[in-house]
Write a structure and sequence with these properties.
Chain lengths: 472, 505
């Protein structure tokens, strides 16, 4: 019986104007998104490899003298990911350029095709289509599932038979999911075909698995709205009222609550501004300077001259290292606070299934702010790796003073770090590592759980509500 | 007749569930959002006031003209509560110094780049989304609904002309929608008035009034679109579906899609070009600087100190050092100013490219009334790109004034007061002690110089005064308002034509 009702629902939906319009809209958006993605991704990949190779070749020039390797400011870029087709996650507006040498690093910057004069916008990726358009479509398909049939008089006819109410509910749910799933799958297929047919883009197995996981997530997300639509439908008598309530709920959940993120995080955990950042840097420097005056690092740590015998190189090294460490601490703290504010804003808005879905898709696709943060950590690890390498190679040179500190002219004049050449092949080079699928799933597990919880809550609500629904 | 129909429609609308729910939702959202937004504005205003007073305090500690490099801050606009625009996405401070010309930027120290993942929340969002939805829901069954009920043919079988019926329904719809719009504005203004530190001037009131009118025009455009669908469809369900889909396209797809397309079609110049230009200029600048430095004999021993704004100056030097610095400043500073201009030209070309992309995105999005309204709201609030550019232009003019002031006071950078506060006597003593390597005496002399030098008298120093240009803002908003009015006219005309041929049976 469930199958019969389900088939009837599916046929009814597919033949309606709203389904045809939804399908058309989703197809157009997916196709447009697919073509635009292919062009953009190609360009970005090309730019990325050009920059990285340029950086590596300039870096390799420095291998002629070990100490130059330490002072060269590498420019590391974030690799563009294929799965931004699914979840672009604002990668184009997030920092993608990291400058660092062995001692210190700059705050990550946004470089490339980004345009800071353009206000916020969402790329037309799958997450956009599913979280905004298809959730809307799911509500449109289910708003009159019960109250509409009650108005038409067919609900009481259906229930006058021996069908239990829960069967009707399940059948309607399955029918609506099928009807909502068709534009979803067709849209995804169209964009995948466009990507697969493009010449230089290939999707490997890991990426296919992630795409499959995101498809499952999308169904989980849509199912929330189907249950929501059914629940509100069983609470109202007129389908027009049901539509009004559902639209307002949709606007609240999908448009308004996600927008609260920034403003609430500004009020609760605002990251320090420029003046505060400068003040901290000055304070840290003043502290180190007063320590030098007090003789904390040794005699004459403040003295600098081209002849190492006229000053105290180890003391100077300690002083400069203390200064660099203090500066790095301030920069790291500032960066952490900036990231913390963004995460706080996200966390505060995860009452909205749209935000949860977005976060989960980003975690599985490995894009977005998590990508930036994990890249930053990898770069810090690389920095210490490179420093270790330089320290080890420097130990092999009996002529050097074996002092690593961030003052290039002193290091060069005093031979504090070895000036011998090294083979560039032995120098550690930065390579971005992607998180394994298992780890990505671990990141997303809470969000998947939350989506499942939403499903359960709305299912229970519609179940209980329908059992008491007056069908006359 | 028109008024009779309008009155009947209006009273009926007021008693519907959708009107009640949507109005309550608007009022509640406004009552919840405005305090949060006002608190955020208060915080930003406090930061601005603190920064400006800290800057003034530092000005009182300046001892030489070389370190006179204050920072100018952009005040937050109150109307950003209504339309945030670009206010939080672009840096709000600019340093006045010889070596760089202030320009719009979004450096990571000024603006947190990780917050670009969030959309902006402001009151105009409630208008763009909730009230426009209400307009849609009020209008979708205005004609097709009456046809289904059978009352349309009854009205038209009498002496009521079709145009009277349609005009009456239009007026009724607008009156219905004016209620939640007005309530939202009243709640917003009441909450704002109660906040301390929030001060509404006459120009603010004028802009709020204009925003109110623009909101009504926008909502009426959405109403007319939905009215058109109602006149095209035979069943209200179909007109609702059509209306909802066009709403989704206008609210969600067009604003995002137009920016997305603009960024892909108008690709920015590769940054290698800009970086190459900057590198070439830097090399040239360095070589010219070294050329100047090489011509002059060395200055000898000197001690530097830092001014309150972070720039260094010469605390103590020998008399020959003073001569050296005099000559150097006279020769190098004009060079610095010249190259600041050249670097700025490169930056300006880059920004021009960004603005073109922005302009393309704006033009593409103008098919949606929602984007038109957003443009109007942010222009009237003073948070659009042009307002921020105007501020930066003012800062640049101020920089020129400061440079002229310093030039005048130091006789074109040649006076000693430009780079050192030390007296001739102190310099001679310093030379004596330096020759004798009497470091303790030198330390005492340094301290004495710091303690005894008075700060500069900056009473006639040009102070930055900024007034947003309201009239210019109105001129810029005029195009989008005109387009909204034209959209209203077009959609109403189409609805009219469709209704003339409508089968009412």
């Amino acid at each position: 019986m469930i199958l019969h009702i389900m088939l009837k629902e599916i046929l009814e939906e597919i033949l309606s104007l709203r389904f045809v319009l939804s399908l058309l809209l989703v197809i157009c958006l997916s196709a447009a998104g697919g073509f635009v993605f292919v062009d953009g991704y190609r360009q970005q990949t090309q730019d990325y490899w050009n920059e990285t190779n340029e950086n590596l070749s300039a870096f390799s020039e420095q291998a002629k003298q070990l100490y130059e390797l330490a002072f060269y400011r590498q420019e590391i870029y974030r690799k563009p990911k294929l799965l931004t087709l699914c979840a672009e996650a604002f990668e184009e507006s997030l920092p993608n350029n990291f400058r660092l040498n062995v001692f210190t690093f700059n705050l990550p910057q946004v470089k490339g095709q980004s345009n800071f004069t353009i206000p916020y916008f969402s790329s037309v990726d799958w997450v956009f289509i599913v979280s905004l358009i298809l959730s809307f479509v799911a509500l449109l398909l289910t708003y009159d599932s019960f109250c509409g049939e009650k108005e038409a008089g067919t609900l009481r006819l259906m229930l006058a038979g021996s069908i239990p109410r829960h069967n009707v509910l399940i059948a309607k749910y399955l029918g609506a999911m099928f009807a909502a799933g068709i534009p979803l799958l067709i849209g995804l297929l169209i964009s995948l075909i466009i990507v697969a047919l493009s010449k230089d883009i290939t999707i490997n197995t890991d990426e296919w698995l992630r795409i499959l996981t995101i498809v499952v997530l999308s169904f989980l997300y849509l199912s929330i709205f189907v249950f929501l639509g059914m629940f509100v439908s069983t609470r109202t008598i007129h389908s027009a009222n049901c539509m009004v309530i559902l639209l307002l709920v949709w606007v609240g959940l999908v448009v308004l609550i996600p927008s609260l993120g920034r403003i609430v995080s500004d009020v609760t955990s605002r990251s320090p501004g420029q003046e505060e950042f400068r003040r901290r840097l000055t304070e840290a420097e003043e502290q180190v300077n007063s320590d030098v005056a007090a003789g904390k690092y040794g005699e004459n740590a403040g003295r600098r001259s081209p002849n190492p015998k006229e000053c105290n190189p180890p003391a100077r090294a300690r002083y400069i290292n203390a200064s660099t460490d203090a500066e790095n601490r301030v920069i790291k703290e500032h960066h952490n606070k900036m990231v913390a504010q963004a995460f706080a804003g996200r966390n505060l808005t995860c009452i909205s299934p749209a935000v949860i879905y977005q976060r989960a898709s980003e975690a599985i696709a490995g894009t977005g702010i998590n990508h930036c943060v994990s890249l930053f950590q990898q770069i810090k690890q690389y920095q210490s790796q490179l420093k270790e390498y330089i320290r080890n190679r420097d130990r092999q040179d009996p002529d050097s003073l074996h002092l690593l500190f961030d003052e290039e002219n002193s290091v060069a004049e005093w031979n504090a770090i070895s000036k011998r050449p090294v083979s560039f092949d032995t120098v550690p080079k930065f390579q971005e590592r992607d998180l394994a699928l298992g780890q990505s799933l671990k990141l997303a597990i809470w969000d998947i759980g939350l989506l499942a919880l939403f499903n359960l809550v709305f299912f229970a609500a519609s179940f209980v509500s329908f059992l008491r629904y007056d069908v006359r | 007749m028109i008024w009779k129909i309008a009155k009947k429609e209006f009273l009926l609308n007021l008693m519907t569930f959708k009107f009640a729910v949507a109005t309550v939702v608007c009022v509640v959202l406004t009552a919840v959002f405005v305090p949060i937004l006002a608190k955020d504005y208060q915080q930003r205003l406090k930061d601005y006031d603190d920064n400006v007073s800290a800057n003034e305090a530092k000005l009182r500690e300046v001892k030489v003209y070389k370190v006179l490099t204050p920072t100018i801050y952009r005040p937050p606009t109150l109307l950003s509560v209504f339309a945030e625009g670009l206010e939080k996405r672009i840096g709000n401070s600019a340093k006045i110094e010889l070596k760089s010309i202030p320009e719009l930027n979004a450096a990571p120290t000024e603006v947190n780049p990780y917050l670009s993942i969030f959309p902006a929340l402001d009151i105009s969002l409630i208008f763009k989304v909730v009230i426009s939805l209400l307009a849609l829901l009020v209008a979708y069954d205005v004609i097709s609904g009456e046809r289904e009920q059978g009352t349309l043919k009854l009205i038209l079988s009498n002496t009521a002309a079709r145009h009277q019926v349609l005009l009456g329904k239009l007026i009724a719809g607008l009156l219905t929608l004016v209620v939640p719009i007005t309530l939202t504005f009243i709640v917003e203004l009441l909450v704002l008035e109660f906040f301390p530190m929030v001060d509404l001037g006459w120009s603010d009131w004028a802009r709020i009034a204009l925003t109110y009118i623009a909101s009504i025009v926008f909502v009426s455009a959405i109403y007319n679109i939905s009215l058109l669908f109602s006149c095209l469809a035979k069943r209200s369900a179909i007109s609702l579906i059509l209306g909802l889909f066009s709403w989704v396209v206008f609210v969600v797809v067009v604003p995002n899609g137009s920016i997305y397309l603009a960024r892909r079609t108008h690709l920015l110049e590769p940054k290698e070009k800009r970086e190459g230009q900057i590198k070439a200029l830097t090399e040239k600048y360095k070589s010219e600087r070294e050329e100047i430095g090489a011509k002059l004999p060395s200055g000898g021993l000197e001690y530097d100190d830092y001014g309150p704004f972070g720039e260094w100056y010469v605390l103590l030097c020998t008399p020959s050092g003073a001569e050296y610095w005099q000559k150097l400043s006279t020769l190098r500073n004009p060079l610095e100013i010249k190259y600041a201009d050249k670097f700025w030209e490169v930056e300006r070309t880059y920004l021009g490219d960004l603005f073109k992309q922005n302009y393309l995105a704006k033009s593409l999005s103008r098919i949606s009334p929602v984007s038109l309204y957003e443009n109007v709201a942010s222009t009237l609030a003073g948070t659009d790109l042009a307002s921020l550019q105007y501020f930066t232009d003012n800062v640049r003019v101020h920089r020129n004034k400061v440079i002229d002031y310093i030039r005048a006071k130091t006789d074109n950078f040649s006076a000693l007061s430009y780079f050192t506060p030390s007296t001739q006597e102190a310099r001679e003593q310093f030379e004596k002690y330096a020759r004798a390597e009497n470091w303790q005496a030198i330390d005492e002399l340094k301290q004495k110089t710091i303690d005894n030098t008075p700060s500069l008298d900056l009473q006639d120093f040009p102070r930055f005064a900024y007034r947003p240009d309201v009239v210019e803002g109105l001129r810029r908003a005029a195009l989008d308002i005109a387009l909204l009015i034209i959209a209203n006219v077009i959609f109403f005309t189409l609805a009219f034509v469709a209704f003339i041929k409508y089968d009412v049976r």
